[in-house]
Automatic annotation (TrEMBL), chain A:
Organism, as annotated: Neobacillus vireti LMG 21834
Family: Belongs to the GerABKC lipoprotein family.
Protein's UniProt name: Germination response to the combination of glucose, fructose, L-asparagine, and kcl
Keyword entries, A-Z: Germination, Lipoprotein, Membrane, Palmitate, Signal
Record keyword Signal present: yes
From TrEMBL, chain B:
Compartments where found: Cell membrane; Membrane
Biological source species: Neobacillus vireti LMG 21834
InterPro entries on file: Spore_Ger (IPR004995), UPF0353/GerABKA_families (IPR050768)
Main location as per UniProt: membrane
GO terms, biological process: spore germination
Protein name per its UniProtKB record: Germination response to the combination of glucose, fructose, L-asparagine, and kcl
Membrane topology reported for the UniProt record: Multi-pass membrane protein
């Protein structure tokens, strides 16, 4: 009894000394890798760029003042694939690259056009990385360039890109997951948000990085991918919003309509969509897309007094009509120009009519481009703000 | 050691070997010789012959300091010496009878017939009286003990609630209890523990409410104690605990009579020990350790809220440093990006791994706390200044310790002080070190393993047969209203069922106040 007890304690204690702390790694020994950039490398390989935090340049204590030093630096190296490139890259990195906090992935446009299918396994296989990642195609440039653009507000440009994406009502850090789901299913073609290098002030050549008009990253639509994950084309920002709305991912949207005597704008905050597929007997497919939104009236530059419900519903109607036309245009453009089901309508059939889907899924993209898609919009203005008519109009000019 | 014992035996051997049971002699001088021999080398032993009728007829003896000599003089000496032996009403009285029946009006008097009883009586502060020619002696109660005033207990302070606390005199303490329960159902069973100290111990309970089997258990466990002396109730606690190797206290102690009474009303049993203000209460549950007196003296909504805060602080005090170490060294993925960046910025340049940093800081904190308690009050504040300056600021500025670690250790320290029972807090502090080491070796897995082991241990503990985690494990839904929250008092209709007693009902139903009730009555 006594002997076995001592033996037991001995075993327990030995754990303390022989465990060796496998993956124990101090923060000071890790290079926090915030963003990855993928570009075409030498000899058909990949070029990996990374954005790494410089902890000692992050101000932890108030005061201090002085000039702001950059809180990050970028590093890049080529290789046959990611791991090979990383090995080359680690040769100039004194700390082990730590991917657990990688928030953003950038792809150069050329790289995306070459196809992503044979490259990205590292992003899902490693237990260290998170799938909650934002992902962008850098329009007309390389990922390496995009990483270099410091943001004046955020200490890390990668975080800035992510926040811009969230602010614009987009997918945010679910973008990569979204891409994976689409890449994995038969009735859904992936899209990836597009970012471009822009300038702070419109129509003005951007100055130096720390001037008043620095170059900035700007969300600029979405890239359309085909079944082999090759980038085929691009949607602009407006079309991107419509795409997200149909997919039910949009979080925020401003609609402005031209009126006879002045524009009006609403900001929608409660946005939803519902897709109803109808398969007729001769396998003709029809979709009805119900788009709903609730929001506040932001601007009404005409003399309409929206305190009267009649006027408000008229205004609502014209918003609905305008929006319906716009979204319908986008849907038609996608059908005609790309012929790729980036809305995921095939998956809707898959969910609702799993039996029919078995026959439909072969050559779905062709069927998608021939399908009849009707968009219906239902908007509600819940708040009209502080005044009925615009205060800039005289009493006599106000329409009741 | 052996030699010492031998010498001691030799000394006593001057006395007859079994003097204890020997009956008193009728010859006064023999008795006197005997007593002198028993109390040899006791400078506080006072023996005083009194001459009545011209010869030594009576001998008084007592221990100086334990006896109220002034009263003794007034009641006994003056009448005897100045007025002589009062003449009886006709019957022939022995002097003893006269003393016993005529002189002592209120003072309790006991007649004893052997040395043992006589000596015991004197040792507890009584005055012994022997009379020439008689084989019985008297033990008269003239006790006077020096005692502290009744003060507010320093360890259990309240904002609202009674301010009296126990002191070192057991009679005062039992009086404080009796004053609160004016019923003969409050029982105080007296016993003596300690070969030499002969400390009086009282088992307090309320008849009918305290379960009989619990009482039996308390009596038998107390009866089994054999020890030379008892200086504090902790001595007893260690003998009657269920699991002596657990770091967690299984017996509650308190300085407050109101806490004792509140527990007696729930069916528990208190053990009051002489010469210490700390009474023991059995059985104790884990949740008792997290309940403060004030929980019952403030409105229930507020105290429920405070209890939640206390539970969160409890978890913080147990896990925060280990979680910090585990997350920063093993699972930095789990920290939000911006937080991780600022933590890593703060850790930049710190030469130690964070587990060492945490252990050192915790060690220093414990040292500061210990020094603060032991030092005289005037110096104590100096310790805190030095501690705050040296550890709080200088260490961070010198880059030896990171600022987040100081925050973590300080938060943990504060959290551990928010636990109402001091000895539960100390248990948690020790467990915290174990957790810290586990976290340093295995990361989050270590914390989980530690937590599971701790839970298994706690659930297995018993305090006088009551599971330590009741009423959560085993779950007794009816008793939960005084665990996670403190329900309104009119909902405490029954006594807690995990302590089974006969008299279950506490408050009749239907006492929830509502204005409508009043209107109906009128």
């Amino acid at each position: 009894m006594k002997g076995s007890q001592i033996l037991c304690i001995g075993f327990c204690l030995s754990i303390l000394f022989i465990s060796g702390c496998w993956d124990r790694k101090e923060l000071n020994d890790r290079a926090i890798w915030l963003a990855t950039g993928w570009d075409i490398g030498e000899n058909g390989g990949v070029q990996i760029s990374g954005q790494i935090v410089i902890p000692s340049n992050i101000q932890t204590q108030g005061g201090g003042g002085g000039t702001m030093t950059k809180g990050f630096f970028n590093i890049s190296e080529s290789g046959k694939d990611f791991s090979d490139a990383l090995q080359n890259l680690q040769a100039k990195l004194p700390r082990e690259a730590f991917f657990g906090q990688r928030r953003v992935v950038f792809f150069g446009e050329e790289f995306a056009k070459r196809g992503l299918k044979a490259e990205l396994d590292i992003n899902n296989r490693s237990p260290d990385v998170s799938l909650r990642t934002d992902v962008f195609i850098v329009k007309g440039s390389t990922a390496k360039e995009a990483l270099n653009l410091a943001n004046p507000l955020e200490s890390h440009p990668a975080v800035a890109a992510l926040k811009e994406h969230e602010q614009s009502g987009g997918r945010g850090d679910t973008a990569y997951l979204n891409f994976l789901i689409a890449a994995n299913s038969t009735g859904f073609r992936p899209t990836i948000p597009v970012i471009e290098i822009s300038q702070s002030q419109e129509r003005k050549h951007s100055g130096q990085q720390n001037s008043a008009n620095p170059p900035l990253l700007k969300i600029a639509g979405a890239a359309v991918f085909d079944e082999n994950l090759k980038m085929i084309g691009r949607l602009n920002m407006k079309e991107n919003r419509h795409l997200l709305w149909v997919m039910g991912l949009l979080k925020k949207l401003t609609i402005s309509i031209p009126q006879k005597d002045g524009n009006a704008s609403i900001v929608l905050t409660k946005i939803d969509s519902k897709i109803k597929p109808i398969i007729s007997k001769n396998n003709r497919i029809r979709f009805t897309v119900f788009l709903t939104g609730e929001g506040a009236l932001m601007e009404s530059n005409s003399g309409v007094n929206v305190e009267y419900s009649k006027n408000l519903s008229l205004l609502q109607k014209s918003f609905e009509k305008y929006t319906q036309k716009q979204v319908q245009q986008t849907v038609t453009k996608v059908q005609k120009e790309y012929g790729l089901d980036i809305f995921g309508l095939g998956e809707v059939i898959h969910r609702k009519h799993p039996r029919q889907w078995k026959t439909l899924k072969n050559g779905w993209d062709k069927k998608f481009s021939e399908a009849e898609i009707t968009v219906k919009v239902d908007l509600k203005i819940k708040q009209i703000g502080m005044s009925g008519p615009s205060l800039l109009f005289k009493e006599s000019e106000i329409r009741k | 050691m052996f030699r010492f014992r031998k010498r001691k035996n030799k000394k006593i051997s001057q006395l007859p070997s079994n003097y204890q049971n020997e009956a008193l002699s009728s010859i006064l001088s023999t008795n006197e010789q005997m007593l002198m021999a028993i109390f040899q080398n006791c400078s506080d032993f006072i023996i005083r012959p009194i001459f009545v009728d011209g010869e030594t007829n009576i001998i008084l003896f007592y221990l100086d300091g334990l006896t109220d000599t002034k009263t003794l003089e007034n009641v006994l000496l003056k009448p005897l010496m100045f007025e002589g032996i009062p003449t009886g009403l006709g019957e022939v009285h022995t002097i003893q009878q006269i003393i016993e029946q005529q002189l002592f009006a209120v003072t309790p008097v006991k007649t004893v017939s052997n040395y043992d009883q006589l000596v015991d009586g004197v040792l507890t502060g009584n005055v012994g009286i022997i009379v020439n020619g008689e084989t019985t002696g008297l033990v008269a109660d003239f006790k006077r003990s020096e005692q502290r005033n009744i003060e507010e207990p320093a360890t259990e302070v309240t904002i609202r609630g009674p301010r009296d606390g126990f002191n070192e005199s057991i009679r005062t303490n039992t009086a404080l209890l009796r004053r609160r329960i004016l019923s003969s159902r409050l029982k105080l069973e007296s016993l003596t523990i300690g070969e030499l100290s002969k400390t009086s111990v009282e088992i307090a309970y309320i008849e009918g409410i305290a379960p009989e089997n619990l009482l039996e258990e308390v009596r038998s466990r107390l009866g089994g104690i054999e020890i030379d002396g008892i200086l504090e109730s902790e001595y007893i606690e260690e003998f009657i605990e269920d699991n002596p190797y657990s770091p967690f206290p299984q017996i509650q102690n308190t300085e407050r009579p109101d806490i004792v009474i509140a527990n007696l009303l729930e069916g528990k049993v208190a053990i009051i020990v002489d010469n210490t203000p700390f009474a023991l209460i059995v059985p104790m549950t884990f949740w008792n350790g997290l309940q403060a007196v004030e929980d019952y003296y403030e409105r229930f909504i507020y105290t429920s809220f405070i209890r939640f805060i206390r539970y969160i602080l409890f978890i913080i005090s147990l896990f925060l440093p280990s979680i910090y170490v585990a997350l920063t060294t093993y699972q930095p993925r789990l920290i939000p990006t911006t937080l991780l960046i600022s933590v890593s910025a703060a850790r930049e340049g710190v030469p130690f791994p964070s587990i060492i940093e945490a252990l050192v800081m915790e060690f220093v904190f414990e040292g500061l706390r210990e020094a603060g308690i032991r030092l005289p009050k005037a110096v104590g504040s100096a310790v805190s200044i030095v501690g705050a300056l040296v550890i709080g600021q200088a260490a961070v500025q010198a880059g030896i310790v990171s600022a987040p670690m100081v925050i973590v250790v300080a938060t943990t320290g504060i959290a551990s002080f928010a636990i109402p029972r001091y000895n539960l807090g100390t248990a948690l502090r020790m467990v915290r070190f174990a957790m810290l080491i586990l976290a340093g070796i295995f990361g989050i897995y270590g914390i989980v393993i530690g937590f599971i082991a701790l839970t298994i241990h706690l659930v297995n503990l018993r305090s006088f047969g009551v599971p330590y985690f009741s009423p959560i494990a085993p779950l007794i839904p009816g008793d939960l209203k005084d665990v996670l929250i403190r329900g309104p008092r009119w909902t405490f209709q029954n006594r807690p069922t995990f302590i089974f007693g006969r008299d279950k009902q506490r408050i009749p139903a239907g006492q929830k106040p509502s204005p409508k009730q009043g209107r109906d009555d009128q």
